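ARCHIVE CARD
Drawer: 12
Card no.: 0347
Subject: one protein chain, sequence and derived structure
Cross-reference: see card 0346
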Amino acid sequence: MAHKHAAATGADCVTTVVYRRRMEEHTYAIGELSQLIGRTLGRAFPDEVWVRGEIRDLSRSQSGHVYFSLVDPSDDPGAIPSALLPVTLFESDRDAVNRALLRAGAGRMSDGTEVRIRGRVNHYAARGTVQVRMTWIDTDYTLGRLAAERERLLRTLASEGLLEQNGALPFPLVPLRIGLVTSVGSAAHADFMQELEMSGFGFRVTVVDSRVQGPEAAGALVAALAAVVDAGVDVVAMVRGGGSASDLASFDREAVARAVATLPVPVMTGIGHEVDETVVDRVAARAFKTPTACAAAVVTRVRSFRDSIDDVADRVGAAATARIVAAGRNLHVASLHLGRSVRDRLSLASGRLEGTDRRLRRGATLSTAGGVAALTAVADHIARAGRHQLALETAALDVVGGRVVEDARQAMVASRRRVDAAADIVAASDPHRLLARGWSVTRDEAGELVRAPASVATGETLETTVTGGTIMSRVVASDDVTPRATSGDEETPT
């Protein structure tokens, strides 16, 4: 028992020695350690540094400060970043940064934008985090990254034949069923709908609400395109208001561009920008500068078809009216002829009756009985003659009436043949039939028919519709326009 006690006492002594040794080691207070970390970072990064990354979780406080995180760019916005660095832009530096972005046309910073910023690395003791206090931004880097990514995507889509795929779809002659992808309640939505309503045509618009800006916009736009096609529409319109290059970045995303290019119905864009084309503009069947212009193009298409149908209907109606008027005129002439014939026959019978009466008066010397008998015989003769004459006149009237009816029937048959012939002309004038025979239709950028070389200008983009699709071309020269030399960086006419 004594031995065991001695062993236990020895173990306790070891434990006590270790504990005292640890107590003698330095223990940092939280504030002390934070200061040390701050001084260490200050020695490691004595000057401001440049750092690049993609903006995530940007927020603006009521005090005017801006907070966000920088992460390494990823194709999957929902993926957990491999590295993350908090960034703070204080109000004192925010105004200068915003002015620089405004001058460059890059727009405000937003989630999903890849940026290159300058700032000081420090340790924020209150939160225990290492962060960058931002002081400046490289606007050329942001715009250059957007432009480079756009050009890369355009080359990829061109190599796969997707730049012209949607534009090759037959554009409907009467696009009355429209699928609209936009931010519901926005000015773009209101402008588009107002233009359609003012036309007076019976458009049926299926509207699908979608975000058009920010990191979630690309996925929302792809889903909206699929939903609107399922609704059974003739054409799809994608519209939004104007904005900076970064604001329109969603329309340069590969997923959105591929969804538009492979859509089974033609897509029209009305994105409020005047300078740069987005990738979606390039892959869409038709692109317009504003939502209003996009809607106006649809209205012009429907109005042109209506005018052509009205013209044919007017010609057919005029021909039918002329035939009916001619038949009525013939019927009137026949009626006048019949009236004169009846009056002539009655006048002749009346003259014969008066002659018989005079002869009776001259035979007054006859005996009363003989006179009555003679008078009766004459009266019977007159009655028989009258009935016979009436029968003849009735028969003649029936013949003339039958002839008039037959003439009218033949006139109506001839009118119907003319109407059918006009309908055949209308059917033969169907643009699809004409296109199948080798004809084509060329429209200018405003959607108007090109009827003469003088109506187009050098450099203007033309759309030529042939059977099986559409050909986009650019005017190099016309009969009365001097060809203009193009620089090496201008688009080659196709």
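Annotation on reverse: Residues 364-368, 481-494 have pLDDT under 50 and may be disordered. Residues 14 and 486 are 91 Å apart (CA to CA).
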